[in-house]
């Protein structure tokens, strides 16, 4: 199925993220949408702070906006609440790489790969491996 920012078993199209080290360029509609998404996930977290998906998805949205430190701050609790959350490890690894922290990026990407392999998700394993080749 591929790595999605919408959770472990999302049936939606996987979201892609560029490999560049700078913040992505978003159009005004995309920027507005990403900020609205963050507001919705803020409310979801207020209503249920033990749900991992809103933390992961808000972290992804912050990543898209170039707020990498904010993204890490959201991905950390997603992993703490559910240590088997492969997508959160993946996105935290990608975000760490964008921050220049190659060690943390590699550690998280290897963990994501391990979790995806344990599920037999070969498409996500291949995606993670493509990021690992850059390290």
From TrEMBL:
Mapped TPR repeat ranges: 52-85
CC annotations in GO: cell outer membrane
Keywords: Repeat, TPR repeat
Pfam families (UniProt xref): TPR_17, TPR_8
Presence of the UniProt keyword Transmembrane helix in the record: no
SUPFAM superfamilies the UniProt entry points to: TPR-like
GO BP terms, alphabetized: receptor-mediated virion attachment to host cell
PANTHER family: TETRATRICOPEPTIDE REPEAT PROTEIN 6 (PTHR44858), UDP-N-ACETYLGLUCOSAMINE--PEPTIDE N-ACETYLGLUCOSAMINYLTRANSFERASE SPINDLY-RELATED (PTHR44858:SF1)
Name listed for the protein in its UniProt record: Tetratricopeptide repeat-containing protein
């Amino acid at each position: 199925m591929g790595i999605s920012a919408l959770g472990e078993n999302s049936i939606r199209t996987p979201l892609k993220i560029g490999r560049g080290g700078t913040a992505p360029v978003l159009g005004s509609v995309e920027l507005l949408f990403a900020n609205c998404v963050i507001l919705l996930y803020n409310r979801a977290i207020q209503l249920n702070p033990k749900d991992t998906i809103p933390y992961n998805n808000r972290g992804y949205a912050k990543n898209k906006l170039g707020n990498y430190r904010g993204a890490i701050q959201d991905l950390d609790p997603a992993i703490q609440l559910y240590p088997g959350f492969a997508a959160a490890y993946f996105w935290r690894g990608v975000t760490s790489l964008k921050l220049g922290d190659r060690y943390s990026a590699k550690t998280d990407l290897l963990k994501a790969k391990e979790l995806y392999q344990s599920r037999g998700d070969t498409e996500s394993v291949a995606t993670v491996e493509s990021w690992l080749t850059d390290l």
